[in-house]
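@channel sequence for tomorrow's demo:
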Amino acid sequence: MRSLAPIACLTLVFSVVSVHSRRLPFPTPEADWYTFESGIGEHLVMVKGMGDVNGDGYGDVWVLREPPSTKSEGTAYIYYGSEDGLLDDYAQSFEGKIWDGWFINLDGDQYSDLCMSWYREVDGRYAPTYEQDLRFFRGSSTGLSEISGMRLVNVQQKAPIDFGDLNGDGLSDLIRVTYVAGHTDYRLLVHYGSSSGIEATPQSISPSDHLGYEAIYAGDVNGNGYGDVVLTNRYTDDARVPAPVVALYTGSPSGLSSTPFWRKQYNVPKKDLMRVYFRRGGDLNADGYDDVILAYPESHLAPCIGYGSSSGLTLDYSWDIPWAALVGDYNGDGFVDVAATRHSEGHGADGVNLYHGSTSGPSSTPSQTIESDYFESSLGEYIAYIGDVNGDGGDDFAVVAPGYFCNGMAFVYHGTPGGAVLKRRSRAPSTGQGSISYRSGKILYHGSGGAGVDSRMRVYTTMGKTVAEVEMTGAGKVQEASLDKQGKGAYVVDVSSGNGSIRKTITVVE
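structure tokens (generated this afternoon):
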């Protein structure tokens, strides 16, 4: 971790540039890692994690800094994790008019891959309000390299884009939306992952109720073992879109359903008519079903939590905490925790409150507060769950403060590892032979069938991070995958073989 030494900041006073060296009031509690490198004029706007691009077993993060003008290019940085956390120096950087980035799995190996979106250049100029290109980068022991011939162009910019595994093959599928009919109707497109990469020709779905203004990969909401997508509309409170609607489209072995599994009208403040965001919540109450968070960014009112179930989402408006984001199981008690940005009148974001999870969902009172005396730091403007960057089994998260050190800083907090005892039933169908169990920190697969049947067992978190992978030869044996370095929480176990496949979700609670 860097020492909190005095930092120089360039300040413009009466058109004269002067350099002031002083000790900045860093957030309390002290972060485990922070960064502030940037080119002149680049502002830190985003941090994303949950990837291991070099396969060393430690989570890596993607940091985006943007210029103040669309005429200039920004930079995306890759920081590697290590036993001590993120390394001080970035491992790779990519320059250009980069809009966003996603860690994905293109080929099912131990290396995370990356997709980044670029503003599309039209007639020598960037067109930030019209189109973007998606470029794909493959992970390896030496880092990321762009995949030749794999690029999606003319993708509508500012339209929703997300990734997740919808058909259970272990590969990331691209979920995106295109506008039709004057930005009140939408088309949902799904490009499935394959052995050769993201398929160029998508599945096309035309939702009703003007759904598609927001689209997210929501995890496994209905508990059938496959990832789902949540859509909402752009409610305008007039004849164009008369009611706010949210719908759940479910995954299956054949892909995403073309009709909603569940749909419902929801409550929305009028101030937020044009800006309502759904966020993936993970399994907030540890019942085996993934949940979502509905946020109202304009009014800063309390969000709605959509709890997953076999019949869809149950919308709960009782949690009185605004603008919340998932941060994984930060305290290692087996429940997903949530962080929420604090706002002060006239100054925007000014800190972060952390709420521990439970069987009834997030707590109503914060267990920890991250705050700073640095004026207009915008601490907590962006919060991100970043996986496990120091390999201790705990979930880590990052807090972005765009106002720090002129151009912004990111602060990383390491989570606490949990313990290990199984307490979960199977909730997904199985087509294969054999059984899955747990004992003394290990996942056990009891195979069956003829000898010589090859199997592959993969264990991953409900957020999609692979924590163990075993190639197995022969049947009738007990094969094992160790969870010794992992903490409490829910894990999905997939076993595929010539006899079929088995998927089971378990939870380690102590």
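heads up for whoever presents: Residues 435-508 form a domain with the Immunoglobulin-like fold (CATH 2.60.40.2550).
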